[in-house]
Specification:
5 strands; 84 residues
């Protein structure tokens, strides 16, 4: 796996989603994740979920409005896939 294999997605209230970053470094993915989970759209419920996936399409971080970061947690659990 190269260092540029992360993608970031955001979901909206109607269930649609948008890939906001593709094939970026871990640092860029984290910066985008922080932006999309703290911007005006997230604060007003326009953005419902934000997820980072790795090059194997596995979830590495997930945020849900009203809950905050739900994955990873200290207790075991898993992210929902972006292919819902």
């Amino acid at each position: 796996m190269s260092g540029n294999e992360f993608s970031v997605y955001q979901w909206f209230p109607d269930g649609s989603y948008e890939r906001v970053r593709e094939f970026v470094s871990a640092d860029e993915a984290v910066r985008a994740f922080m932006f999309y989970t703290t911007n005006v759209a997230a604060k007003h419920g326009i953005t419902q979920k934000v997820m980072i996936t790795d090059g194997g399409d596995s979830c590495v971080r997930e945020w849900i409005t009203g809950k905050g970061v739900v994955y990873p947690k200290e207790s075991e659990g898993s992210c929902e896939t972006h292919k819902d």
